[in-house]
Records
---
Amino acid sequence: MRSTLIAAAVLTGVVLVGSAMVRVAPPVPAGTISGTVTYTGTPPKMRPIDMAKEPTCVSQHPTPVMTETVVSGPNNTLGWVVVYISAGADGSTPATAPVRYDQHGCLYIPHVVVLQPGQPLQVTNSDKAAHNIHPLARVNAEWNKSQPPETAPIQASFDKPEFIPVKCNIHPWMHGYFVVLNTSHHAVTGPDGAFSLAGLPPGTYTVTAWHERFGTLTQDVTISGTETKSISFVFKALPY
Amino acid sequence: MGKLFAVVVTAITLVSAAIFAMHVWWLPPDISRLGAGIDHQLSETMVAAGVLFVLAQLALAGFVWRSADSTRPIRRFPGGATPMVLLATALVGVEILVLTFVGTKVWGRIFLAPAAPGALHVDVQAEQFAFYFRYAGPDGTFGGAHPEMIDEAATNFFGLDPANDTTARDDVVAATLAIPVNREVALTLRAKDVSHAFYVPDLRIQQDFVPGLVVPLHFTATQTGKFEIVCTQLCGLGHYNMRAYVEVMTPEAFDQWLIDQAP
């Protein structure tokens, strides 16, 4: 009899707590902003990278590697553009998953990575040559560490939002970006220029597209319910 | 013990002299028009220094051997230490002056004489930790270099301004120094950051880059092939890896190379 009462009490408690949790976090409708980044005009010509000083990297590329400043696809789509929510209550959460940045074939892979403040960054060296990783930070602390082959990943993180150019002094053609953003809603376009920012609660947002050569573009977008809003960014390209 | 020391000194002297005399570790074959003069000067310096070295070491060994088991007092140099130091300084000074005097002619032909009028002009920039080479392109004119416009990601290593400077648009920038054989090459050396050096052992030339200075250097390669350019001025953590190659080509191959490299 007593055990039945206890079981009933526990069951009631579980039901009450459970219903309370549902009430605290009701299902929030989430919308999506997606689209494509393109350019008009004539972009600068990308050139083959001469890696002659590092034979172990030359041998990894049967055909010459081109610089990655402007990477585009058919119909003038533009890659390596960071698209993100720059203003609006987008319910961002801190990111804790480590982001890997690899040095492979004397290139940075990927060319651009996005991080959130405090998010762990792991810089690895897959080459047989030594590299040095030199983030040219101005808002965050600047550092410069060398990484010989087969050594442990370099662990780092950045506290403040910033677009940080990264270079290797040993191989001056190596160049990339650490992009530190407050928002967890961000995307980096591939050569097809496509992006999608999902999981946005209803509201009005400023969406920013950043390209290392062509600068930034912004648009205000209002999301209601679970709709998907389609937008496009068109950068103006100059050859020089 | 003293006699053993004398034997060891003699052995070290003879072995090290033999290593130099037999060219065990020597420069690679000379491939430049003025290299023979440098080699001649190097040999004279080696002989002059080597003869003095061997004589001095053997004299040391001889004195040690003679005095090893002797109780004879060691005699003083006539007049004491001061005339001994003065005499030694004068002897070495005269030797260095003679070598300098003899070498001035070779030095002057490389470092003091201007490049020939038909020389190929190449702009060289040294930076931590690479060399870059720039050719004037079909218009024969170098575009202006603007340090503030240097953009390594876009391979604009010289800070060219092709948007506003039309002479910069056809400038050829490469990480390899390609040159035609048997034609004089006039380099203009500039350092982007710290001191570096341009050293090609096969060409027998070595010249420092000095930040803020524009340093001319000219040479003529007499054989085709690929030769290493190394930095011999400690310039930072990547100094060990600061190198490039000079590729000496036939004139036809060089003309084609320039066309292939056109921006």
---
Amino acid sequence: MSAQHIVARRPGFMERERLQDFFDVFRLLGYRTLGPVVEEETIQWREVDTIDALPTGVQARQGAGEYRLEEQSENRLFAWNHGPQAIKPLLFSAEETLWHERLMADGQVDIKQTLPEVKPTAIFGVRACDLAALALQDRHFLSQQNPDPHYKARREALFLIGIDCAFSAATCFCTSTGDGPSLGEGFDIGMAELDDGYLVWGGSAKGGEIIDRLSLEPATEAQLNSMIQETDRAAAQQHRFLPGETELKQLYDKLNHGHWDEIGERCLSCGNCTAVCPTCFCYSTGYQRTLDGQSADMKRQWDSCFSQTHSSMGQFMLRRETALRYRQWLTHKLAGWQEQFGRSGCVGCGRCITWCPVGIDLTQAVSALLDGRLADV
Amino acid sequence: MFDPHLPHSAVIDRRVQESPGIFSLRLQHVDTKLQDIFEFQPGQFNMLSLFGVGEVPISIVSDPDDSHFFDHTIRVVGRVTEALSRLQPGDRVGIRGPFGRGWPMAQAEGQDVVVVTGGLGCAPLVSVIRYLLRRRDRFGDIHIMQGVKHEDDLIWRRQYEAWSREHGVNVQLAADMPGKAWPWQQGLVTELINTLDLNLEKTVSMLCGPELMMLAAIAQLRDMGLVDQQIWLSMERNMQCGFGQCGCCQVGPKFVCKDGPVFCYSEVADFLGAKGF
């Protein structure tokens, strides 16, 4: 973390118990508050209104095709890295209605716009990689020509409380993509967890107002040093990496590399990687009719370049082989995105590695494709 | 806020059966204000939806100066186009669009235009041919090269005959498997292109059809001396949204629906014909 970074933060100190103040303030301001909760043996975003609901002393051990929650001795609330989902499903719904149609008495069809009902929502404990992914999804769904009204409505209602990562999972590689482990930008309130409490600072005007209300003591020199040490430790724990963006563009020169077929042999084409990827944005649409045939909703659902329909045109499928689907995913994510959005579509969260049922590791795949060897993991 | 997902009702004014499997619909927005501001370029497309059945991208074939109506020529290839084929005048469809980038009509001003079509993929270029003919003095010679597999695959046969009688229009048709009454060439569209005497300084070529046909035609045109910037083509992929959001139509880093469907050859040269793209 650079000195400039720290100067910009000017954090105040907050004891761990006082964290409840945040929940109370957001309730007063009319927000619903989402926070990390242990559910189904993972960390998931759920509505929480007390600090007690947070995962105390829990760490997430992650590996290729592996996710286990374990106890952590210091009783921290944010020692876990992340669960299967970033912010994506909260803005880009896994399924939603785009419009509603109804047959009228005269036989004509009435078409109605359907927009989501949104409540102001504060999300507690967002990671740097998730914020980087959010910025990318914003670029896609809030494009100047055709901003998505569904995404936009939810996005504008969002208040984000980010937190520095003090630990890295074995699958994390955000240092090599430049997206973590310390918070960069895109949050309203930033936090860093220390042994005895939190350093907190405003990241936006509305975040700053809330921090001012809390009248906190400025952080001491020792606390600032601890804050730096925490993220330095997290960075040092990372041993996976991706090469730079110029190198990643060369994936398009490797379309006939034999390694695609090797991965194609292992890959189940299940689409878990695209479902947990915080930047994947593909979807398909289709009508859902009511049983009486009088009305129909046009639904959009997350799709995946691993699905059969994604590359289908009528009877013809462009990517029948799994190897081609994996190649589509990896080349698009790491090279195609650069032309489309000005940077690679990978933020180094490592979720695609963790949640792959057969443990395919994109950092290894890239290494094998570009250097002709497997990364030493 | 404008919602690019939301369709608007359009009513069918006229329906024409072009051939056993191909029909045209002349449409008009029910909302007259929408019809008044509805503008498009040859090569752009609309998303057509039918209540409870589905939604499909279809190229617009009418002239952009026809402000009262817009036309779609549709081939029955699946469930949605089958259902659309049963509609009659007075029935309604949902319309979103127009979407995409059309043909380089501004670049073509003052130039000879070579139109190459194959199979049944000619609808996106029929709009171009009509556009050129209605503004005849603004363009040079027009070469229309159409290849089909079977003789019966040629729709708009009378139209091709009519075009061939126009001044400065060279119509060449080839069938891979012609019948006895086929008055034109036997063979491939590339053999037709080979007969052209191109003015390399002032020619634009526009291609539409099966990608293997287009690849062969492009190789031929480049051999004859055209540079990549003079070669344009229209592509087709799975399109769910029409405006570069759903991701299904991507070819390498290009969104076919938004960056295309009409591309300059140089933009897609790396991926055209590459397996899996």
